[in-house]
């Protein structure tokens, strides 16, 4: 079947444009007066016959639907995926054939917080992509972390109950730093690897546009001969992988809890379309048991040193939704939404997901959720399902059953027309029915260690700080100690350093209770582990080799006050904008900024409305602004905090007094114009590194 419309074209049929239109009821009846209810006399009681009022209020009373039980807080965008490589030997999926372009809708999310919670929580980020292919919708519902907390779907409700606000008092919101989460994970050593990722900078992205995405599970690609190849999906962001500091994340949550949502929306509105390459790790069926870990275990990744990531295509997000609720909120993702050429594996977490998503969509959106415009396949649906609440489609004819002769056998099987219908991989299964888990899943610490050892020194320090923060928030000392015992199994130095911050000597052995629970899964736990293939993996750090060297879309604050020299502002603005960065002028108040030469410029940002944590770098231009800023505590806070968070700072000639008044020490991340012809280049080079994390320890200032 051919694509008969793009997703954009399809959605156009549902767009409502109120321009130049008369206000009506939901039945299209023109409304004469939308200010007054119908009353008995001007001051009298309202009448029950006011159908105009009821039409409005009844709808309002039903505006809320259940939020997603996890990943409630999210932001989405439309885009396109273009396949660039030929992988037809591995898959017959039509959208994965070289040169094919497919419309997508992508939603990013946090996991634990409610719909209105902050974007900057320490949390995993969801990364869901709906491909509107000519063979129907395919959903790749992944995360920005390549592994998961648990191995079997049956533990999922418990995991989520433990991390969500506690049931008696419903706090803390969007935070894992509390008793119940650490109680659960300290009793579930299988969570050790994922918890390590969640304590790393990966859990504090600078932007959705700067995170990797992972399918997490091993899936199968199926070629047109029915042959399967195992596959892991990766999204690699063109802008690189970048994070913010924990102190910064907490402050951003206060200054702008929509930080990521706004960043994505504005980037797309500005034409800075975010892009990710799709990468595949392909593993031949014969190699299923070749590794020291089990590829069906979702708490394990396949180091890129063992199986390189093959880049095959690119996704570009280029259009914001017209309406958040209609599109982003009603988007229904489901890892069981597969197309011919892709199949699931026996990963016991994935198997459970295939049930849960469809179920949750039925609850959240109703049984006809696939008829909601954002969820409609572009190739149309043809089957004998009918009726149900809010059915939109109108099925023609008297036949809604199969097989039939009355409608000429329609709709018929794909194979009758020589088309490829979805066929599950013909996998041979021969085993007893058991409620058990494979012993090949029982090594929980080797890859947690691999991740920790693969981080640079600052990355390791951030992990130590994160464990120390989170466990300090845990009220029960028994839980803290139990988790330290897990850390000690991963790396004794890590355990010692966290233990020092908590005043606990890390126990040598796992806690009795942890062992007891693990032995309920594997009686012989702990097992003798296999030697890992690699001790360190470069790809687990945050430096993507192809993504370095850009300051595109970075926000640079130009910190001014009235009397600033216009040329000093304009010069850096032009240079930054040429590099694709955004220069934002911040002054003591919004409205007209008065330059030294008397000219004016209308500005939108002030030290009152903005904060240093919302920017990537800072420049202070020269002029009479210096005298004003010397006495401006908010300005000093901007540069002190920028310094603390390892950002690039540049100062024009004549502004040195400001640096002396601040807590800034002159280091390789601070650039001065005075006597330095290359200052702009240096400033940009520092920004390209994102942050000067290497000297973070020397930048510990009270800001
Ligand atoms: Fe989900 N997950 N999940 N999950 N998940 C949902 O579906 C679930 C898991 C992920 O942007 C829910 O529509 C179970 C892994 C994302 O709308 C729900 C299990 C991964 C999103 C659900 C998992 C994810 C969800 C809630 C264990 C990474 C947001 C609302 C068996 C690969 C999708 C909804 C969006 C959402 C269940 C584990 C990612 C309840 C039972 C592993 C990105 O169905």
Describe this structure in words.
It contains 19 helices and 18 strands. Strands 1, 2, 3, 4, 5, 6, 7, 8, 9 and 10 form a ten-stranded antiparallel sheet that branches. Helices cover 27% and strands 15% of the residues. It folds into three domains: 74-375, Catalase HpII,  Chain A, domain 1; 444-540, Hemocyanin, N-terminal domain (Up-down Bundle); 555-699, 3-Layer(aba) Sandwich (Rossmann fold). It has helices spanning 7-12, 51-61, 156-163, 179-187, 192-198, 246-255, 259-269, 324-329, 348-365, 446-453, 457-473, 477-490, 492-502, 512-521, 566-578, 625-630, 633-644, 656-661, 679-688; strands at 74-83, 101-110, 125-133, 136-143, 213-214, 219-222, 228-237, 275-284, 310-319, 342-343, 555-559, 582-587, 591-594, 600-603, 605-606, 617-620, 648-651, 670-672. β17 (648-651), α18 and β18 form a beta-alpha-beta unit. With 703 residues, the protein is an alpha/beta fold. It binds CIS-heme D hydroxychlorin gamma-spirolactone 17R, 18S. The site of CIS-heme D hydroxychlorin gamma-spirolactone 17R, 18S (HDE) has 26 residues, from β2, β3, β4 and α9.
